What does this fold into?
Amino acid sequence: MTVPADDPSRFGTQAFYAALGRAFVAMCAVVPALALIELVDERTGGALDAVAGISPRRIWGLDGIFLAPFVHADFGHLLANSAPLIILGTFVLATGTRRFLIATLLIAVVSGVAVWLLTPENYLVLGASGVIFGWLGFLLMRGIVERSLWNLGVAVVAGVLYGWQLVALLPTDQRVSWQGHLFGFVGGLLAAILLRRRRTVGDAGAPVASPPAEP
It folds into this structure.
C-alpha cells in the first residue's frame, strides 16, 4: 500500500502522532467544559437539566436530542462518562474533525430520537452515554469496513476496555437509558459504514486510502 507520508491515517508518521495528540488535548478540554455546565446546573437547581434533557414524546423535549449529551444528572454521572469520553472521543476525532462532527451528530440524532419515542413519558433523559456507545460502535465497525490494521487495533482496544459495557444495551436497570445506549451504538455502526474511507487503486496497483484523512 502506498500512502502519502503526511497522511494522518498512516500509522507511525509524524502527522499521525500530531493528529492523535491534538485529538487527545481537545477531548481533555471537553470534560472541564461539561463540568462547568454541571456546576451551573447545580447552582440553578437543575434548571439546565429541565431545559436540555429529553422529555419523551413531548414536543418541547425534542431539542434535548441535541442538548442532552451536554448535561448530566450530577457530578458522579459526569465522572463516570469522563474517561470513555476522552479515550473513545480521541480515537474518533483523530480521524478528522469533519468526520468526527458528522458521526457524532448522526449518533446523537439516532440515539435521541429512539429515546424520545421509546422511553416512558415520566422520565427525563440526560447525559453523553448515548454518544459514547455510538463512538464505541463506530470504532468497532470502522475496523471491519476499512480493513486497516491500525483501525482493527483500535477496535480491539476499544472492545477490551469497554466491550463489557455492552450489557448496558439491554433493559437491566430502570435508571439507565438502554434505549439511548442501544440506538447510540446502532448510530455508531451506521456512521462507520456511511463515512468509511473507500480505497482506490494507486499507480502501482496497490490500494490507497482516498481521500486522505483530515489532520
Observations:
- The domain at 14-210 is CATH 1.20.1540.10 (Rhomboid-like fold).
- The chain is about 60% helix and 5% strand.
- The CA atoms of residues 8 and 16 lie 4 Å apart.
